[in-house]
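Exercise 4. Each item below gives a protein and its sequence. For each, produce the structure-token representation.

Item: FtsX-like permease family protein (Paeniglutamicibacter terrestris).
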Amino acid sequence: MLQLAFANLKTYSRRFIAVTLAVMIGTAFLAATLMVNASATETLKNSLGSAYANADLVVTGDYTAAYDAYEAEHPYSETTSDGANQSAGEPKSSSYSLGAKARNAINDVAGVEATHAASNFGVSVRAGSKDYYASLNTAAKDPKLSNTVLETGSLPTGSDEATVDSTYAKEYNISIGDVLDLGAATSTDKQINRQVKVTGTTASSNDPMSGSVMNLTITDSLLDALDGDDPVEYSQIVVKLSDSADIAATKNSITAALKGTGVEYAQVLTPDEQIVKDVASFSGGSDQLTIVLLVFALIALVVTGLVVMNTFAVLIAQRTRELALMRTLGAVRSQIRSSVLVEALVIGVLASAAGVLLAVGIMATLIAILANTVAEMSFVTLAVSPMAIGLPILAGTIITLVAAWVPARKAMSVSPLAALRPAEDAAVGNKAGKLRIIVGLLLVIVGAAALAYGAIKGDILIAFGGGMLSFPGVLMLGSLFLPKTVSAIGALTSGGTVPGKLASLNAVRNPGRTTATATALLIGVTLVSMMMVGAQTAKSSLGDALGSEFLVDIEVNDYQGTTFSPEAITKAKELAGVQALTKLTSVGTTEEGQDIMAADPADLKAVLNSNKQVPGNGEVLVSSYYEGTTLKATGFGDKTGELKLLVSENESMIPVITWQTAETMLGVTEASAAKDRDSLSVLWVKTDDSLDAAALRTLSTDMASALGVEEAAMGGGVMMKQMFNTVIDMLLMIVSGLLAVAVLIALIGVANTLSLSVLERTRENSLLRALGLTRKQLKRMLATEAVLIGGVAALLGVLLGSVYGLLGAQSVMGAFGAMSISIPWLQLIAVIAVSVIAALAASIVPARRAAKLAPVQGLASE
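Answer:
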């Protein structure tokens, strides 16, 4: 049988080219998806996790665990007017804060080679005649832990030296040798001032949080001095371990050492675990990114299996008579089955290996283009894990074996004489058709229910399982209605021509062949449409989530009771890049003494990044820390009102109401608030979306100057929102690259099945030629048939893909909040057009081959 298998591979090489391409492209898609998983993690580590990318462990204080433990020990003491419970205090900061004592304890742990502590300490910076805001950090003493990359000059060595990140140094005209005035306020409101000399510039951070402000690198002694009498608190401590250290054991030892210093609540994680935690904190506390990428890999695996199995089914069906003839000549079933499996094994291994190489080339090219042409995406990294190489080769080989075994087993289950006769296709009236209807309906009903449940509950794994059940059900039912649909549309559009009528009749003359061809395109178009709709909806929903997280682009608030003059506000409005600006005026206070601001609702709508966050009459827009449903507030005239909470995802915003609410609920009008000298003013600014990071930083500086405030008073989330959008766009662009591969899979599948179907119909086409059909008419018949099948399959695929994409996006976006539906209509129309054109193009070569064959020669072939 080995000799027979290799003889078949050599003799029928043209047929096996189709299968090889299907396996190679399908495996490439799976490998590329796994590379996206690894590359996404590595890229996020280089952006969100740039501070700990080179570490072995990351230690952070766990405030959430400390707060939960404190609440458990201290029951709620009060109940607010709306029935919400109110906590009796906060846990001690020493139970979760990391300081010098904690760092020393970590250094003493066996296996720890070096540590570096990072702080979130901020200072005001005066350079020349302007004031800025900067975040301070120190350079790691161990180069293995250092994420500070020196570009020019030297790192600071004394308490009177500092380096500036190159981006802000260039924009603020700060050069080596310049003297900067640093100012910091301690917890006791004591102001500490220091002068430092700039000794060099460092590479800018890719972290959306730290990269949104100027970064100064200073010495530990200067950091201690600026913190005054307060002990320095670290946001995280990164750890480098010795080569012989056991990570799990060292984690436990560090946790125990921290508890010995009083730090009861801390997390000790690897960099990969920490980046998952960081992403999860942005996505509502769940690791949606990992789940989405896992589902992406599973989809790639299933699509690869469907395409390869469909291609093999056509190939084996074409060889059924040949296999039956071999059995009549003495070959037993096991021998023929072994021969087919050997063919599949050879094709599977070689094509899968070629697919992995193709995926590496595609991903490397795509990421190189992104990194070299888009400055904001220079941190994009290609990561090829061992799993991305081994799993696709193994999966491709197994899928090819299964794809060959299933139709071969079916062919072997039929007696030789029965196999030599034309096979009866499944139809509504026969037993096979009825069984197909029952099984298909069950799969669709159960799968649709699971898909809907997963979407409602926000569980993507359940939704994925529902999709994997329902789609094969749709394919099974499709064999019963696809041929008739193609035939009906063909009859309506044939125009009475002979090629058109024949193309329409061919759809129902051999339903299995029509279904196989349509299925190849249906699988690819459904996948492409699903990813297009899902990605577009996910991006729109993420935009809304970012809009709720970063409500305004720029907030001007110096917390000094500033009231901005009309002239200053007008000057700020006229700055280039300002799209809208509104003033918020203090009209009262909450029970806790926090100011409540008021503004016109139309102005709020103009400046807020999410229209869903504009408060209505009687509502107050508050930060995410507020609990319950209402809030008590008191106006300047001592009138008290109970306001309905509109909770945003922002963590630090001041409560905001409309002027109508201020007047009706608190008894404060715009005119009366203007007369109150103690009425605090805050400005909210909406910037032009086309501004890049450099233009935004320039605008912030110019606005501070126009309003007469220090740049430290310029807040808002425009820089962080833009950097998060950059990361999101990067991930979506990689997904778009996978879409291109998916399109290629669909086109290869169509070309395969069309070519094989033409080969299968050699005698049939030759008979038509012998009966008077011209070569031109034969070509038109095959082309018309391809267009009809391609059009129907593409339309159905777009409809199915859109439904799957929306439900899938809903299951993913449940953790981010409400989903914002966004359908890329033009792209979907383009998918249909490309599918029809591709089907037509795929028919050209086999049609020309069929037309060139002489009728007598074709009738003599087998």
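Check: Residues 485 and 792 are 8 Å apart (CA to CA).
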